[in-house]
Specification:
This protein has 128 residues and is of the alpha+beta class. Helix content is 31%, strand content 34%. It comes from Bacteroides uniformis.
Amino acid sequence: MEDFNSQYANHSKLEQLKQFILEHGTYIELKKGEQFTIQGKVNHRGAYIEHGLLRYTRVDEKGNIHIVGYTFSGEFTGSLCTLIEPNQPSLVTIEAVCDTKICYIPYLKVEEFFATNVETMQVKCTLI
């Protein structure tokens, strides 16, 4: 059975988005334990993972931390709720499990990419 995340990371329409991020984004290395997104804070950027591993966690109302997902090398990461609604705080914290190289880009630039033409607008529809 194909990995759930890979269904999206390898989707043919998302190749354009990947190339856009790699050409216009900023490369950084997150050290183990470093956070990319913090639950409850607005995150204005998404990323493509060059290599490494990111963990998604959520703190419940009792203060318990729950692991709710992972993203791996060759996959996208970020707060989809913020991409859809720019002022929506992230529902999760995303942190590096090991040293992880990503290429991040502000969602504003991603929105400009989506608005380029009908084909790129379809890329957005694939995500949401």
